[in-house]
Amino acid sequence: MAIPVDLKYTKDHEWVRIEGDSATFGVTDHAQEALGDIVFVELPEEGRVMAIGDAFAVVESVKAVSDVYAPVASEIIEGNEALEDSPETVNEDPYGDGWIVKVKVTDGDTSHLMDAAAYAKFLKE
Amino acid sequence: MSDNKLAKTPLFAEHIRLGGKMVPFAGFEMPVQYPLGALKEYQAVRSGEAGIFDISHMGQVRVTGPDALVFLQHVTTNDVSRLVDGQVQYSALLNDRGSFIDDITTYRIDGNSYYLCINAANRHRDVAHLQQQAVGFDVTVADESDETALLALQGEKAQALLQKITEIDLDAIGYYRFAVTTLQGAEAIVSRTGYTGEDGFEIYLPNSSATAIWQALENMGAVPIGLAARDMLRTEMGYALYGHEISDSVTPVEAGLMWITRLDKDDFIGRSAVEARKESGARQALVGLKLTGRGIPREHYKIIANGREVGEVTSGMHSPLAGAGVAIGYVEPEYAGAGALSIDIRGRAVPAERTRTPFVRSNVRK
Lengths: 125, 366
Prior knowledge:
The structure holds 2 protein chains of 2 kinds.
Chain A: E1 8-9, E2 14-19, E3 22-27, H1 29-35, E4 38-42, E5 49-50, E6 55-61, E7 65-69, E8 74-79, H2 82-85, H3 89-92, E9 101-105, H4 116-124
Antiparallel strand pairs in A: 1-2, 2-3, 3-9, 4-6, 5-8, 6-7, 8-9
Chain B: H1 12-17, E1 21-25, E2 28-33, H2 38-46, E3 51-54, E4 59-64, H3 68-75, E5 87-94, E6 100-110, E7 113-118, H4 123-133, E8 140-143, E9 148-154, H5 158-163, E10 178-183, E11 186-191, E12 200-206, H6 207-219, E13 223-224, H7 227-236, H8 252-255, H9 271-280, E14 285-291, E15 302-305, E16 308-319, E17 324-331, E18 341-345, E19 348-354
């Protein structure tokens, strides 16, 4: 189970990569594994403003529908439109080409997020 | 993970060995998928391979005695007198209100001996109903579910694989026909039936033989298939599933199953109610829908017409072959044939067109 050290994580199994005042969100390797084959991704509209924990996208596998929640307060810059034709990319490369949205961070507080070690421990519990 | 209240099939250890992800289903712990994943399992069955399914959770009832035929004519909807030895028939058990107790298959072994395959979730209710109705008939109703394993081998290569472990000429078994034979020393029923729309067989075995036959087929390349892929395969074919398209709140008139409800035979349980419903008109109609917009229709999603809810999805999926979301659902009768429909997906009305089922080509041997 891959858990890159340069990312932050939520208890709902999203990851966030913060670069200055922008960030990228996706779902973790654990999440894609638990969901199984992903067959549909519903992306948010550009400009949508999100508080921490707001559901902003939907990832659907063969059997399950899962909301994806905002790890930090932010505004949508763009969704990963390649996922509309190739949703399986989320399974194949959850931390790379399987990213879900890029955002502008509106509040940089990440104290509620886990680092890789804490997330690894959380998964074991 | 394991729940002591759940039953296990004789193949439970095989599912664990193969890495199956076990979930509760109809009172059993069953594999929803294996490490290959539901999509690739589905593809193995649809695209020229063969898949092997453990469906031992399903129930089996043997009906024997001089009154077996008249009894089955009384309790089932289809015309059992049309069956010859070695033939299978899709049928149903109705209650007095004409609605479904279960949908079943009826196997005629000989004129005094029949075999029914029933849904796992309805097993105890079916058996109680059959035994209650058997009073006054010279017939024995025996529930053999606990002793019987059931494997399905489905896909283009099914016959070639199964032929390697049986002496009988499988090619001689037509669609919805079966043979009683011996497989690796145990008595088995091998029928050319299934729930996938592909050619293939269902194999009834004593529990003690299940693992050997499963392993033999798996070792020859049959791909283990879990419940998720099984549901994709059946939904793509538009096959009804108890608890979804059929239930004790609909009759064969609504479910589009008048073709297995023979009003031209003698009286049977539920017949007068079905006739009355046919006369008064269906209260809802089952339709096949294909999304023209993006999204995946799922069970219980609302079907919309003119801004108003006119029905509900009973089964839905993303069909890899159709390249679209497809659904089966009930709508108010006036929307069965005309009027623009859409499906409410998280507040978005996604347009859908009525489509005949199956949604993709059936490859069953006719």
